[in-house]
Amino acid sequence: MGSASSSYRVIYLDVDGRIQKVVFSRFCSPCDIKDLFCTALGAPRNTNLSLLDSSGAMVSIDPTMPHNTERSPYRVVPMTGGQLADKEELFQNVLTQVAEQFSRAFKINELKAEVTNRLAMLEKRVELEGMKVVEIEKCRNDIKKLREEMVSRNNSNFLEDNKKLTPRRDVPSYPKMLSCLEHMYHDLGLVKDFNINPITLKRWLLCIHDNYKNNPFHNFRHCFCVTQMMYSMICLCSLQEKFTQVDVLILMTAAVCHDLDHPGFNNTYQVNARTELAVRYNDISPLENHHCAVAFQIFSQPDCNIFSNFDQEAFKQIRQGTITLILATDMARHGEILDSFKQKVDNFDYTDEEHVTCLKMVLIKCCDISNEVRPMEVAEPWVDCLLEEYFMQSDREKAEGLPVAPFMDREKVTKPTAQIGFIKFVLIPMFETVMKLFPQIEEAMVQPLRDSRDRYEELKQIDDAMNEVQKNKNENLTMGGKKK
Fold it and tell me: Do the beta carbons of residue 403 and residue 395 sit within 8 Å?
């Protein structure tokens, strides 16, 4: 879920037998740190201090001082003016006067301020470059994995009986996913309009990536595809002309977060197996509620909170909107949400908040199950990945004595039978309803769905014909055996 920022140091002090914890930035000056110690000690600022470790050795007060723990605190000893030798005090006064003269003559304070500003700029650049290095390394690892997958790819989809499906895992790894997601937020104007810190955006996306499990289907690649489809619909349908920027931010963020920490087993399994998630959320959309909870646990970390510049009321609006959309991705609510949208679409009113919320719910549903909108060479491997996840669940359900859905049973399902009904009765009706509001999606999205339906129906006809031939062959062999 992320870690504390390395920009801060923690030092423990022994103040009259009490342990005081002092936190400061590694960019603080020694004077700033000394002032913090004075405050912890309850002494006036600029008090001369000595810092001693457990062995009595003096420790330098600066940002690089050695780390300690509550069990080994440093002892702080204030030094009064009487403890300074007269000559040293005189010498300090002379130095102060000389410093003041130099400051007046050479504008030392102005120079110091300029140097400080330049150092701050350099530190930001160094931090930015550091994030780029992390991102580049992750991209290299993704590319390496992609090459390994391509080398070991298995192109065989069916076993000999043509029913036991062995899905292949050749979905692209998309090495530049993080950079692309980051670009979408910039390109839509969200970073500029809401003053999102670009470094925080990078950290947030990295944390999101790390909180998706490596499931066959519900993984970070799926998150990327759903968000990319949302970005495409926003652009294709000119949604920024119809929605507020807050609505656009909610749409994109809900897409990014919608399957966080998905365990690879659906809500039906969670409820039937009485898992911790099902018990926690009373069998009501346990996975979707969990995705929301993980999303806002991430936002609760200051380093990952892209909403840090929003006031409390604005954040409340974004939180509620994001939760509403993620909960809408529960397919158990598909009929309810689509029926509500059908009642509004013919007289849709963009000034009606209820209408807009319903449209946003339908949009994220479209994006969540949009793989068949993509070209066949991209869409078909995703079917393999989904079936692999289904088979993992049905195998587990059989082992645990739980009910098994026929469309998840490796003994009964084939790719054509898995896809035809879903495309005909779920995808096409929903996208055609959205097309009433946005006719421009017909060519880019609805027609590819129709083509995919036709293709799988042709494949089913071929499968049926082959099965019929095999059946007749087996019958002839049986009859021949009886005659003998």
Answer: no
Q: How far apart are CA 139 and CA 277, in angstroms?
A: 33
Strands, E assignment, 215-349: none
- The pLDDT tens digits of the residues spanning 142-189 come to 545 544 554 554 333 333 333 444 444 444 555 589 999 999 999 999
Among 109-118, 320-329, 364-373, the range scoring the smallest mean pLDDT is: 109-118
Tell me the CA distances in angstroms from 212 to 119, 160, 263, one per residue in order: 37, 35, 9
Distance CA 402, CA 457 (A): 32
Residues 373-411: tens digit of each pLDDT = 999 999 999 999 999 999 999 999 999 999 999 999 999
**Cα R_g (the chain), whole angstroms:** 32
Helices (H), 160-197: 177-187, 190-193
Distances (CA, A) of 8 to 67, 200, 330, 360: 12, 16, 41, 41
Integer Cα distance of 343 and 111 in angstroms: 68
For 74, half-sphere exposure in the C-beta direction (CA atoms, 13 angstrom radius) is 24
Which residue, among 156, 154, 146, 217, has the nearest Cα to 383 in the 3D structure?
Answer: 217
Contact residues for 72 (Cβ-Cβ < 8 A; gap 6+): 12, 53, 54
Measured in degrees and rounded to the nearest 5, phi and psi for residue 238 equal 50, 45
- Tokens found for residue 340: 């509500």
Other C-beta atoms closer than 10 Å to the C-beta of 206 total 17
Contact 365, 226 (CB under 8 A): no
Q: Helices 334-345 and 353-368 meet at what angle, rounded to 10? A: 130
- Is residue 40 within 8 A of residue 22, CB to CB? The reply is yes
pTM, to two decimals: 0.66
Answer yes or no: 218 catalytic. yes
Q: What share of the chain is helix, strand, coil (3-state, %, to 5)?
A: 65, 5, 30
How far apart CA 227 and CA 364 sit, in angstroms, is 9
Q: Give the CA dihedral 221, 225, 231, 233, nearest 10 degrees.
A: -170
86 falls in which pLDDT band (50, 70, 90)? low
**What is the spatial distance between Cα 426 and Cα 444, in angstroms, rounded to a whole number?**
18
Quote the CA–CA distance of 88 and 312 in Å, as a whole number. 55
Helix 245-257 vs helix 198-210: angle between axes, to the nearest 10 degrees? 30
Q: Across the strands, what pairs with 52?
A: 58, 75
For the record, the structure tokens of 477 come out as: 């062999």
Strand 18-25 relative to strand 48-52: parallel, antiparallel, unpaired? unpaired
Which pLDDT does position 93 carry in this prediction?
A: 65
Catalytic residue among 218, 222, 290, 291: 218
- Among residues 477, 475, 471, which one has the least CA distance to residue 163? 471
Terminal-to-terminal C-alpha distance of the chain: 71
| Better-scored residue on pLDDT, 472 or 166 | 472
